[in-house]
Amino acid sequence: MKRNVQLDFLRFVGVFLVMVNHIYVKGDSILDNVFKVIRVGGWSGVDLFFVLSGYLVSGLIIKEHKLYGSFNASRFLIRRGFKIYPTYYIFILFSFFLGIYSKSVTHKPTLAGLFHESVFVANYFSLNNSHLWSISVEEHFYFALALVFLLLLKYKKVQLKSFVLIYIFLLVIGIGFRLYNYFTYSDYDFPRDYTKSHFRFDALFFGVLIAYLVNFKEEFITYILNHKYKIFFVILSVILLSTNFIFDREHYHIVSVFNLAFNPICYGYLMVVIIHIDKGAFLKVISPLAYIGTYSYSIYLFHRLFDNIAIHAFKNGGIFYYLFYFSSAFIVGIIISKSIEYPIISIREKYFPSRSKKNQPVFEKGY
Asked: Which residues lie closer than 8 Å to 243 by C-beta, 6 or more apart?
């Protein structure tokens, strides 16, 4: 099946931003300074991932509902499990034993951290791998999304008003809790202010709202894409997103309150614009990056390991550190995807085929 190049390109953008956010910059070259700027706001790549996940996963549910007038929640969650669990559990076990037996690891992994990661509560409790909090958020969201759709179907409320109200509710809840933290605490604390599921569900559900509009309100999407002020809104979105790279979240605590609210909206709007750009020249330019983006899940899981290896191998940083870090994370991520993730997805497709493949607006292998 043909993949959507634009969405895979956005996956690449997301994983690249996150990788740079975790990068080690020691020098003062032009490249070092560019990475320093991107590193400040690279964390926002997770917001892009959240919007993409909400859009793609809910799109499958919505398409299933359109085709059959129903939704098989158990099949949905089983299919999600086939996608997420195998590579995830291999990673957390591998990183745990590597950390236990490696002499160069300063912070040894704990059984408590392994347990919290195993049951997807690592965004509320201790964890061994600092970047896995986002996987816990997504896992919580998938179960919540299945329940929400079942309730909407039961009460015949699968309509735009319902999705808008749910999004507004989640947005207000997220802002409210983050505002409380902002006024209660004076220090920066990433786990406290950024990783809780109820702080971030609005980002994922904004993707759900977009999926609903794409499937049921196509005229509204057309209106947005043809709006005379589209360029203005694109520029405004870019300007707002640029604040992530200007104001360091460690020193500007207000970033946790407002940027987490408007990042998904801006990324979501740009996503809608980009996935509708079908010019051949644009698609050719982004195709190599989109290819890497195809394997973003495995790359995301394993990239911190290669960052740590690169830091020990190239203590002075520089171009060789960057080359090793990115190339090894990309190559190994691709190998793991092809050897573990995709073969298991093939098994999933054999025994638990999707009910939503007919005439999908955007087909995504692996979802």
From this structure: 41, 255, 259
% of residues, the chain, pLDDT over 90: 87
Q: How confident is the model at residue 362 (pLDDT cuts 50, 70, 90)?
A: very low
Give the contacts of 246 (CB within 8 A, at least 6 positions apart): 40, 41
On whether the CB atoms of residues 9 and 290 are closer than 8 A, the answer is yes
Q: CB-based contacts of 292: which residues, under 8 Å, 6+ apart?
A: 12, 15, 299, 330, 334
**DSSP-assigned letters across all residues of 5-68:** HHHHHHHHHHHHHHHHHT------SHHHHHHHHHHHHGGGHHHHHHHHHHHHHHHHHHHHHHHH
DSSP 3-state of 69 = coil
295-336 pLDDT per residue, tens: 999 999 999 999 999 998 898 889 999 999 999 999 999 999
pLDDT for 253 beyond 50 = yes
| Cα atoms found within 13 Å of the Cα of residue 92, Cβ hemisphere only | 26
In whole angstroms, give the CA distance from residue 266 to residue 58: 19
Region class of 4: left (phi > 0), else alpha (psi between -120 and 50), else beta: beta
Residue 339 has pLDDT above 50, yes or no: yes
Sign of CA dihedral 272, 283, 340, 109: negative
Domains of the chain by residue range:
5-351
H or E stretch at 236:
helix 230-246
Q: What confidence score (pLDDT) does residue 360 get?
A: 47
CA distance 95 to 79: 25
Q: How far is CA 326 from the centre of its chain?
A: 19
User: d(Cα 187, Cα 60) in Å, to the nearest integer?
Assistant: 41
Phi-psi map region of 131: left, alpha, beta (phi>0 left; psi -120 to 50 alpha): alpha
What amino acid is encoded at 24 in this protein? Y
Q: H helices then E strands: how many in the chain? A: 16, 0
- Per residue in 47-86, pLDDT tens? 999 999 999 999 999 999 999 989 999 999 999 999 999 9
